[in-house]
Amino acid sequence: MENRLIAFNRSIRSIRSFGICFLIVTFILGVLGCNSGNIMEQQNLDDVTLVKVAFWGSPEEIEIITECIKDWESSHPDIKVRFEHTPYGGYVSKILTRIAGNAAPDVICTEVNYFVTFATENVLFDLSEFIDNDTSFNLDDFFPEVVDRFTRENKIYAIPRDTAPFACVFYNKDIFDEAGVSYPTDDWTWDDLLDKAQALTKKDERGKVLRYGFYGWAWQNFIYGNGGSLVDDVKNPTVCTLDSPLSIEGLQFYSDLINKYHVMPTPVALTNLGMGVDYMFSNGRLAMFLSGIWETPSLRNYDFRWDVAMFPKNNKGIRRFGTGGSGYAVLKSSQHKKEAWEVVKALTSPQAQIKLAEMGLAQPARRSIAESSHFATYPDPPRNKGMLNNAVKFAVYDPFHPNWREIEARYIIPALDLVKNGKETAEVAMKKVIHDVNLLLQKKE
Hints:
Elements lengths: L1 H10 L4 H31 L2 E7 L3 H10 L1 H5 L4 E7 L5 H10 L6 E5 L2 H7 L7 H6 L10 H6 L1 E2 L2 E2 L2 E7 L2 E5 H7 L10 H11 L1 E2 L5 E3 L3 E2 L3 H5 L20 H15 L7 H7 L3 H6 L5 E4 L4 H4 L6 E5 L10 E10 L6 H11 L2 H10 L3 E2 L2 H4 L17 H4 L3 E2 L7 H17 L5 H17 L3
Parallel strand pairs: 1-2, 1-3, 10-11, 13-15
Antiparallel strand pairs: 3-13, 4-5, 6-13, 6-14, 7-11, 7-12, 8-9
Helix pairs in contact: 3-17, 20-21
């Protein structure tokens, strides 16, 4: 190659200067061309606002959330949405750390109880002005109960995506039919629950349980559903009421399902079984279990017949249960609040909630979608999921207090473990922790 270049230089020595000039000009034009492209690309990027959205979720949920925004983005070329998946464990602390480090997202997904921390940390932007001045947005379409949860002192800090009452008692129709037991209905009682659970619990000749009649992790339901409470005032709690007679009576019935009637596994027994509740339920090892509608996508993967009934009333006709849910909020630190509001609207739009509804992952927070054929009468199981639209008004949120999560972790959950394992009665366990719980309730920071 080198010899060829030498020969070439000798043969055209007379036009070397021209050649050099040509190469230089070509190089310069090439550089200018590249820079021109970069400049044009930069100009295009300058016209686009990047909105970062933090959220958690299963792989299926991640796919739905990212897909539901694509059509919207194509009609909003001036806004680019970047989803930042953050694991549910430690979600709050990770978001707060990012805020402190000036690396926060613009929009966050917040669960109804995580919202308490974000609100008390004063990191959320009041959306009221956007809502009042945006004629394309109608807050009246959302269940008022979850809107109220995201409201503090008449300021709205998050737009609901879904609501999630702990109201679903899933039941295996095949097991009920085999045992000749009638299906539960939405007007059943605690006595009915116990009767069916006893009839469906199956033991071998040595007394070993082969099938449990019932399982439920939502202990709050048995307190609320008996007319009891966790605190004196959910929105402004000052005193714990877990030691009240009604609270103790409801919690003791929950314990009795495990330790007296033996229709529900102890925590130890459940661990020893070495299988998930959904697997036990689908394989005939569990006849009924209490949870939320989010169990649906997993259960649809199994080949058996099942449905849901609303968590029963107590024997005095009282009906209450705990609840979850989520929404989207804009952080105060966002430099693109107007664009972030547009993204929040898209993420909570009818189109986005339809996708969540049809998958069965969530009960839409928009009543128009929750009551439509996309959810209430959607043909895939559970067939009775429309009852959740009535269940919303019986839902009770966790106490709105910055220390409540710490209170649960330090005092209530350990006390509940003693109750569930039959080591202490509900009365003894709850009265032991009341003093410490009240101290933390009185501490507002």
